[in-house]
Structure formats: C-alpha cells, structure tokens
Write a structure and sequence with these properties.
Blueprint lengths: L1 H4 L2 H18 L5 H21 L6 H29 L8 H22 L7 H11 L4 H27 L3 H19 L6 H16 L13 H15 L18 H10 L3 H13 L2 H9 L5 H12 L2 H4 L5 H17 L6 H18 L1 H24 L8 H18 L2 H15 L12 H6 L9 H26 L1 H4 L16 H19 L1 H6 L2 H35 L5 H21 L1 H5 L13 H6 L3 H13 L5 E3 L1 H10 L7 E3 L9 E5 L4 H8 L3 E6 L4 E5 L2
Parallel strand pairs: 1-2, 1-3
Antiparallel strand pairs: 3-5, 4-5
Helix pairs in contact: 2-3, 2-5, 3-4, 3-5, 4-16, 4-17, 7-8, 7-9, 8-27, 9-14, 10-11, 10-31, 12-16, 13-14, 13-16, 14-26, 16-17, 16-18, 16-26, 17-18, 17-19, 18-19, 18-24, 19-20, 22-24, 22-26, 22-27, 24-26, 26-27, 30-31
InterPro entries: DUF2206_membrane
Pfam family, one: DUF2206
Protein name: DUF2206 domain-containing protein
Length: 708
C-alpha cells in the first residue's frame, strides 16, 4: 500500500526513519547516535528542498538541506514545546514526545516531497553510476587529498601531546603543514578540481576549529559556559526555559537545537555541545567558496574560503557558538539569494526560513545583518533611480525582517529587544565621544595601536599584518566602488579576472558591510557592547571574495608599474597568487598564535598551558567537582566569585545566574558563599581569608562561608 502512495525513493526514506526509531528505542551503542544525528541533520531539510522541487548541484543540496534541517528543528520544536505546555503537558522535550512528533512531521514532509518532487524515481543503476564517478579520483587528486585527511588526525594527535606532555610541536607542525599545502594546491591549481577544493576546505576548517575544544574534557571558552547552561537547563527541564536573566533566552541555537540532538542521539551532553557546533560551523567556508566561485576562478574562491578560516574568531569558533550559528544562516542567505538556479518565489521561502533562523540563533548578529540590509536597500533605491535594476531586497522584506525581530525579541523573550533598544540609545548618546580615547573599548584601542611602543616585536608584527589585511580589503571595496561599471552585472564592460559580474545587490551589500565596519570602529559604545571581531567575521561572509579582488587589482597595478619602470612584463595571475600567499600565510601564522610560539611567548591556550587564556578558559577536574558540590550542598544561597568562576559554576554546577555575585558587589549582601577557582586562589584568598571559613578544598578551588 505504501509503495502505491509513495515512490520507491520516498518509501526507502520511510524505512530509514523506522530503522532509526528502532536503534533509538533499543539504544544500540554507536549506531543510535550515528543514525539519529544523520537523520535530523540532513533529512528534514532534504525533504523541504525536495518539496520545493529544487534541482541543484549536489553540494548545494547538501548545504541547503543541513541549513533547512537546523532551521526546522528550532522552529518546529519551539512551536511543539509551546503548544504542549499550553495544553498542560510539562515535558515535551523528552524522548517519547520528541520522537513521536518528529516521526509524524517527517512522514508528512515525505508525502509532500513525494508529490512535489518531479524527479522522485529511485534508479539504482543511476545512483550506482553517480557514486562511482564521484568517488573515482585521479592520481593527482588522491595525492592532493592525502594532506587534508592527515590534518584532522594531526589536530587530535597534536592536542593529545599538548594535554599530556605539554608539547606543542605537533600543533605548530599542523599549522605549518596547512600553510605549505595552501602553497602546493595553489601552485597545482590547474590539476585541482572543484570536489578537491570542497573536501580540502572542509577538512582544513575541521582541523583548525577542533584545536580549542580538544584542549579540555569540559566546556572551553567564555560565553560558551553560559550557552551550555541554557542547553543543560532545557535538557533537564524537558522543556524550553525562559530565565529572564539574560538575552541568551532568545537563542534557540544553544538551547532547543542541541537538546534535540542529545535527546535522540544520547551522546554525553558536554561532548555533544563541544563538537556538534564546530562540525556544523565548518560548513561556512564551503558556502563562501561556492558563492565566490560564481565570480572568480575556483583557485581564487578556495583562497577566499581559506581567508575566512584564517580569522581568529573562526579558529576560536567553539567558544562563540551562537554567533557562528547565526553567521551560518547569513551565509546560507547569501547562497540562496545569489544562486541563479532558484526561482524567486522559492528563493523567498528559503530566505525567510534562514532569516528567522538567524534571529533565533543570535540577537546581536540579527541586529547587525538588519543594519547591513537596511543600508543595502537604501543604496539599491538610489542606484535604481539612475540605472534600471531589480532587487530581491525590498521594503517589504525589511519590514518583515523587523516584524520577526520584534515578535521574537520583544513579544516572546523580551530581554534581547530591551537590551537592543538600550544599546542603540547609548550608542547615539555617545556619538560625541567617538574620538575620545578613554571612551573607546579595549579592542578599538588595541586596533589603533595604543601602547604599541611598549609592546614586543611579535605583537608589532601581528599589528602590521592585521592592518595590511584590512588595508587590502578596504582597497578592494574602494576599487569596486570607483570601477563599479566593470563589476556590476547590468553594465557591459567586465574585468578579465571575473568569471561573471557581480549583482547590484551583492555590490550594495559589500558597500553596506564596509560602512558597518566603519561605524562599529568609530562609535565607542558599539564595541563596548558588541565585540568588533564578531561584526568583522559576519561581514567576511560577503567580503572574503573582495579581499581576493583587492589583491588581484594590486597585482595588476604592480604589472603596470614594473612594465613602465624596468620594462619587465610579469604574469598578472601568478603575481596575484604570490601576493595573496605572501599576505595570507603570515596572517594565518599570526592569528593562530604560531608567531608567539616562535618568539618563545605563546599566548593562546592551544599552544600553552601557562597563558592567561588557558588560566581563564581551562576548567580542572577539581573545579568541576567543587562547582557540582556547591550546587548540591548550598541550595539557593548567593555565591561570591569572579567572572571566570561564574563560568565554571554555571556550566559545571548548573547554578543559576541569579545566585552568583561578582567581587565588588558583595557589599550589597551578607552571609554569602565564596567560590575561588584555581587561578583566583592567589588573587583573592588574602583579601577574604580573614572573614571567611573554608568549608571545602579540592586543591584547585576553595569554597568558604563569607560573613560581613
């Protein structure tokens, strides 16, 4: 009967769903986790894409399926959670309700996809032929694929040596090997295929992004501990909890999404949270490559993707999960709106889906991308008055965007909207202080070279490299603006290095991103409330390709100058590759921390167990135990600690924000408990030792009762 209703392809999908159910209910080790993760990461989105009857390249189908699945999981289960609670069922996010409701909606989606998909026949011989051709690599491809595979292994091996022997030589070797491989694959670009670039980008991204979470068995980072608290609270409560404490209430990417994965896969919560997000985030460089190769050669697009990987925030992405989940959806928006194969109506459906998912993932990123789209719309309005051009971005789209922001941040979670309004008001009120150094954040002061004269040589080199990259990026943007007739698709003239000209909307988004970076850099209040590097990483979704364009144009200028001065005719393409590598590889060494290792003063916790970053981010076994002990023993009592102690208490002890008081605020309270982490013992114990009784000592942390 099923076969009469469904085609063979979709009948097999139903069987796979049932097989996954069996593995989950019988809790079959490994197979349950593998099948559940594969199912929820790919299948819902795949069915949505097929319901839209989209026929695209295989890699685009995979990326859009993953993105649509993540969107579906957040939207569907928050709606399911709300309806269940309103009907009096208090544990909607537990195994039975989740799997039953998921099965129902997947069967519905399968039925719709079967009806809408025009290519729904299952042809085994065609599939076998396609797999055989896709898995058949040439000898040169095999040779060029060996290093990226080893990079992931080196990442695990290098961190193992760092954790157990305090030896960073293998990690340094990994970074140097990646740089060498970039040179190699650029040199042999004629032999490199599209699939080789795709696999290499993904594996390089994984090998770099895994370095931080592998350094500890516990949660690593700053905000990640707070994000993990929301995940574990949702999981233990079996429903979505709005704490009302912070704007993180609005971020379903760190609560409902990982909770759904854990419920179905049964992977240990901390391991799941540490490694699920880095794997998902590693798809962002793939999207940047795909978007970039529409306009530039594949080899240039590969370098654009590597430029994104080379950013410090990407390397530390495991400590910025909600930010990068939002950036992922922005990248998917770029993939959708600049893809010529997707019809406008279906493009709008996916655009709204990913836009709302960005809002559900991170409030600040949503506000920034709204500003970028608003400036882009203003630019398109002015541009279209002089030159006839159509834009996907309209006033209606921006109104819808704002309505979604208002609905989610104001009507549902509230705190994120209130914080956003206060933030904007403060930023406007502080405009007259933009050139006063004291009003600038530490990030801006560092970027402008404050105290540069007192810094060491390595710091100065890194400072120069950062500004060199920013200068070339700025030059690329300004070149596009000055020579816009050679870049924008509605004009006839085209520069020879462009595969296709850039859409007017892409051009306006590039200009808007550049404008936002200038605003963030010059308005003091913005960088105090929102890290400048996060805004920069977001804009690089659109600007990475512009960095490559900037280098190509500089190479053309070098060619003209050399020909005029010394009558030498150089190859412009080879010069551009050389220029990109000369800049991007030292920059990669700089942001990864290798420069500091070479100078004998490693700053990153990836390379050192004595750096300040390690002392702040790394959680010891004793600190974890003491955090759990204080939660069990000292119920509902205020706890006095520092910023990093707070992170340990919320992630390891699962202690509410409301119970934690920072040093300096304790005078408002009496009879509080004192929590001192390992590296705070020497900083604070002398100050509070006389008035507190130590009641717990784990060696790396102490707990005392503090009387005023």
């Amino acid at each position: 009967m099923f076969k009469k209703i469904l085609s063979k392809k979709y009948f097999i999908i139903i069987l796979l769903i049932l097989l996954t159910d069996v593995l989950i209910f019988f809790n079959v080790p490994f197979f349950r986790s593998f099948a559940a993760i594969l199912l929820i990461t790919f299948l819902p989105g795949f069915l949505i894409i097929k319901s839209l009857n989209l026929n695209m390249d295989g890699i685009k189908i995979i990326l859009l399926s993953i993105g649509s699945s993540l969107s579906f999981l957040m939207i569907y289960f928050v709606a399911f959670d709300y309806l269940s609670l309103s009907m009096g069922y208090l544990k909607p996010l537990s195994l039975i309700p989740v799997i039953v409701s998921l099965n129902v909606i997947l069967v519905i989606l399968t039925t719709i996809a079967n009806r809408m998909d025009k290519d729904n026949e299952f042809n085994y011989s065609v599939i076998k032929s396609n797999l055989k051709s896709n898995l058949k690599f040439s000898n040169s491809e095999k040779l060029l694929l060996i290093p990226p595979i080893y990079f992931v292994a080196l990442s695990f091996l290098g961190v193992y040596f760092m954790n157990y022997y305090n030896n960073n030589i293998i990690i340094v070797f990994l970074i140097v090997s990646i740089a060498t491989y970039i040179i190699l694959i650029t040199y042999y670009s004629q032999k490199a295929t599209n699939r080789l670039y795709l696999i290499s980008i993904f594996l390089i991204g994984l090998s770099v992004i895994f370095l931080m979470p592998l350094r500890s068995i516990y949660i690593t980072g700053a905000d990640t501990n707070l994000e993990y608290y929301y995940f574990i609270t949702t999981l233990s409560s079996s429903h979505w909890v709005i704490t009302g404490s912070t704007s993180l209430d609005a971020c379903l990417s760190i609560s409902i999404l990982p909770a759904t994965y854990q419920i179905l896969s049964n992977i240990k919560s901390e391991i799941l949270f540490k490694f699920m997000f880095p794997i998902i985030i590693s798809t962002i460089p793939l999207i940047i490559y795909i978007v970039s190769k529409k306009y530039l050669k594949n080899s240039y697009a590969f370098l654009a993707a590597f430029f994104f990987i080379s950013q410090v925030l990407f390397i530390n992405a495991a400590a910025n999960t909600r930010t990068f989940m939002a950036i992922l959806f922005v990248a998917l928006i770029a993939l959708v709106i600049f893809d010529d194969q997707i019809p406008d109506m279906k493009k709008m459906i996916l655009f709204i889906l990913f836009l709302f998912s960005c809002i559900l993932s991170h409030y600040s990123t949503a506000y920034i991308i709204f500003a970028i789209f608003l400036i882009s719309l203003m630019g398109m309005t002015i541009f279209s008055r002089k030159f006839e051009s159509k834009s996907f971005l309209t006033v209606g789209v921006l109104v819808l965007f704002f309505c979604l922001i208002y609905f989610w941040y104001s009507q549902v979670t509230q705190e994120a909207f209130d914080s956003g309004v206060v933030f904007i008001v403060k930023s406007i009120n502080n405009l007259n202080h933009m050139f006063i150094q004291e009003s600038q954040s530490s990030a801006i002061q560092t970027a402008t070279g404050a105290n540069l004269n007192q810094s060491n040589l390595t710091y100065k080199v890194n400072f120069i490299l950062n500004w060199l990259v920013l200068s070339i990026l700025s030059f690329g943007v300004l070149s596009m603006i000055v020579k816009f007739r050679y870049f924008i698709s509605i004009f006839e003239n085209r520069l020879n290095f462009l595969k296709s000209k850039i859409e007017p909307l892409y051009f306006m988004i590039v200009c808007a991103c550049f404008a936002v970076l200038i605003i963030v850099f010059t308005v003091p209040q913005i960088t105090k409330g929102y890290d400048m590097t996060r805004t920069y990483s977001l804009t690089l979704v659109f600007l990475s390709v512009v960095f490559i364009i900037g280098n190509i144009i500089i190479a053309k200028i070098i060619k003209v100058v050399l020909k005029y001065l010394i009558k030498v005719n150089v190859n412009c393409e080879k010069t551009s590759y050389l220029l990109i590598l000369i800049i991007i590889l030292p920059f990669f060494f700089s942001v990864s921390g290798v420069n500091y290792v070479i100078s004998g003063n490693p700053q990153s916790m990836i390379f050192s167990s004595s750096s300040d970053e390690y002392k702040s981010f790394y959680i010891t076994d004793q600190e974890s135990s003491s955090s759990k002990w204080i939660n069990i023993t000292m119920i509902n009592r205020p706890i006095l600690t520092d910023h990093w102690g707070r992170n340990r208490l919320v992630s390891q002890g699962e202690i509410s924000f409301n119970r934690i008081v920072f040093f300096g605020e304790y005078k408002k309270l009496s009879n509080v408990y004192l929590y001192l982490r390992k590296n705070a013992l020497t900083d604070y114990i002398g100050e509070y030792n006389n008035s507190s009784n130590i009641i717990y000592n784990s060696g790396d942390s102490e707990i005392g009762f503090f009387k005023l």
